[in-house]
């Protein structure tokens, strides 16, 4: 087989170009810290990286939502605990002290009545607590204050929740429906929605309910379901107890009965505080899971996209050495021929 000088030169130029390309690729990887800089260089890795990056962004969105829900939940829990603390003080201190025989004068009872009415205002403020312009106990309608306390001409107090009288037995069905009001948030559990527009049903196990209607916390309706029954609402009970203390003919038995019903309402508040604590633990666990997913996805993206710098520098050094060697070989590529020995 005859090897010509032109063939040797063509092969040399081709191989020298390959060495230069390898050197440029190694240099680019060192500078960019990436295994590839275009999809064409590594289509499979580019596709996998795109999928992982979409998962990472979605996971970050869920993580931000969880943090927002946690802050909103903390506001609910703080307000509920304030209500429970106020109710506990009223029950264990003012309620029992007013029953004491030494505090039986009308003047003393009026002092305690003022304390109950002041606490009533404080409870109302807590029930209308807001977070970032949204009322935390308003259910799905957080733009308007849920509770409003009014007084009739005869001195009777009316408490409304989203415009509905919480003590009117005729509103029982409406209040029951409002108590089940929900506001679901997708936290990455595979939100399952069924139905069509206007009639959508969300699977409660696939989303988190951020709604806590204030009437579930404070109570609604009456003890016997009639207008003559004792109110179940803790705010109205404060007013009823204050009214009883201000009467000249103090009915100790009636007062004790109201106080016992108030304790039931306080226990209901305590139960809701406990439920909120459980939900807070759930959100903390969810946040930790999402943070763990974020770290895992970041590691996977790093393995697919980014290059090991020690390996990249070693490859660059080798490519540079190979290119320099190729240049040196070029100096000796033309071997002496028969013509060089002719005189």
Description:
There is one protein chain. The chain is mainly alpha-helical. The chain has one domain: f41 fragment of flagellin, N-terminal domain (Up-down Bundle). It contains eight helices and nine strands. The chain has helices at 5-32, 43-99, 106-127, 172-179, 214-218, 234-246, 252-305, 309-330, and strands at 130-131, 134-135, 147-151, 157-161, 164-165, 184-185, 193-196, 199-202, 208-209. The strands form four sheets. The protein has a three-stranded antiparallel β-sheet with strand order 3-4-5, with helices on one face. The protein is rod-shaped and about 145 Å long. It starts with a helix and ends in a 13-residue tail after the last helix.
Poorly predicted regions are none
The neighbouring-strand order within the major sheet is 3-4-5
Structural class by sheet pairing and helices: mainly alpha
Query: What is the annotated CATH architecture?
Result: Up-down Bundle
**Rg calculated over all Cα atoms:** 38 Å
Q: Largest sheet, described in full? A: 3 strands, antiparallel
Provide mean pLDDT, rounded.
86
Estimate the strand proportion: 5-15%
Straight-line N-to-C gap: 29 Å
């Amino acid at each position: 087989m005859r090897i010509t000088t032109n063939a040797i030169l063509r092969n040399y130029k081709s191989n020298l170009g390959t060495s230069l390309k390898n050197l440029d690729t190694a240099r680019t990887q060192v500078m960019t810290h990436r295994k590839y800089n275009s999809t064409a260089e590594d289509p499979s890795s580019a596709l996998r990286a795109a999928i992982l990056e979409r998962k990472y962004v979605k996971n970050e969105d869920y993580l931000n939502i969880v943090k927002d829900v946690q802050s909103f939940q903390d506001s609910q829990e703080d307000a509920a605990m304030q209500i429970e603390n106020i109710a506990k003080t009223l029950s264990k201190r003012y309620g029992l002290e007013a029953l004491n025989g030494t505090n039986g004068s009308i003047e003393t009872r009026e002092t305690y009545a003022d304390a109950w009415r002041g606490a009533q205002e404080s409870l109302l403020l807590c029930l209308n607590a807001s977070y970032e312009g949204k009322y935390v106990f308003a259910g799905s309608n957080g733009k308007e204050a849920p509770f409003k306390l009014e007084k009739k001409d005869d001195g009777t107090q009316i408490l409304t929740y989203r415009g509905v009288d919480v003590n009117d037995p005729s509103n029982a069905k409406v209040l029951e429906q409002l108590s089940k009001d929900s506001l679901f948030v997708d936290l990455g559990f595979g939100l399952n929605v069924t139905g069509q527009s206007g009639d959508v049903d969300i699977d409660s196990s696939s989303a988190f309910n951020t709604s806590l209607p204030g009437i579930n916390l404070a109570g609604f309706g009456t003890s016997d379901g009639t207008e003559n029954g004792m109110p179940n609402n803790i705010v109205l009970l404060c007013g009823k107890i204050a009214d009883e203390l201000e009467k000249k003919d103090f009915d100790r038995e009636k007062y004790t009965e109201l106080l016992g019903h108030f304790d039931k309402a306080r226990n209901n508040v305590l139960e809701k505080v406990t439920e909120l604590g459980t939900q807070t633990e759930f959100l903390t666990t969810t946040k930790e899971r999402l943070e763990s997913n974020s770290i895992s996805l970041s590691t996977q993206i790093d393995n697919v996209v980014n290059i090991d710098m020690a390996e990249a520098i070693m490859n660059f050094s080798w490519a540079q050495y190979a290119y320099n060697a190729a240049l040196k070989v070029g100096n000796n590529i033309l071997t002496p021929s028969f013509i060089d020995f002719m005189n």
